[in-house]
Every structure is written in C-alpha cells, then in structure tokens.
Amino acid sequence: MSQIFHHSTNTLSRVSIFGGVFIVAVERRRWRFDVHAIEGTTWPHALSVGAAQLLSLIPGMSRAAATIFGGMLACMDRPVATQFSFYLSIPTLFAASLFSLFKARHLLSAGDALPLAVGFVVSFLSALLVVRVFITFVQRHNFTGFGYYRIAIGLLILMLLR
After folding, report:
1. What is the domain partition of the chain in residue ranges?
2. C-alpha count within 13 angstroms, C-beta hemisphere, residue 159
3. Which residues pair with 76 in a beta bridge?
4. pLDDT tier at 161 (50, 70, 90 boundaries)?
5. How far apart are CA 76 and CA 69, in angstroms?
6. pTM of the entire structure?
7. pLDDT given at position 17
C-alpha cells in the first residue's frame, strides 16, 4: 500500500512541477490576444479550451488551470479565458451534482429538500462573488506566482519522499 502511495504522490508532484513550469512559461511569453470580451469567443476558441480541459483528466492537473491556459493559448486574454473557464464549469458541476444526488437518492427524504435548496442557493451566490473577485484579480495580476508555488510544492513533496 505504501508503495502505491509513494508512486502516486511522486506522479502528482511531477505533474505539479510540470504544470508550474508551463504556467511560468506561458505567462512570460508576449502574447497578442485577439479576444478581449467574452462575446468575441468563437467556436474554434471554445474547441481549443474544451480540448485543453482534457488535460484535467491527468491526476494533479487543475481543470481551471488547463482551461484558462488553453484559452490563453487560443489568444483569449487572461480575464476572458478565466471567465470562459468558469462558464465552462457550470454545466460540468451541475451534471456532477445531479449525478451525486441520483446516486444518493435512496438516502434522501422529502425533509432534505429545503436544506439542499438553501445550500444550492448559498453556494451559487458565493461562487458568483468569488468568480467576480477572481476575475478582477486576474485583470491586474498574472499567474506566475501560482506557477512558482506549484513548482515549490512539487519539489518539496519529492524531497520528502526520498
């Protein structure tokens, strides 16, 4: 069992390092962004972001990072790519939530409807607030610090595993 944990942690730390290097490399490159508003997103942009989302199937790869940087590589500016990434998560999270509810349907009763509805509304409103704050943040900052953080965490985990 410990050998499996060691192998998976080793893989996750390497993915973290690779992702951090990728983020720093993308952020250092001088881009010519064609899309500066979400309304300017085209089908090819959406396809590029959707293809980048496939990278999140790799353990340790963030779906948000994959789609944001996929958008930037498709020439969407950072705020638009971030906004598109969050819009893209809505149907995914909604479907995952419905699937979880369906799997747990035998555990639910009519008395659970109100707490679930309140939880849904509060989660939705707090997510809107966080997304707004995050998009405002990325309009003024880049993700280089996050890239270095991923590299440091990955290296730390590799050192602790030795």
Report:
1. 2-161
2. 7
3. 35
4. confident
5. 9
6. 0.78
7. 93
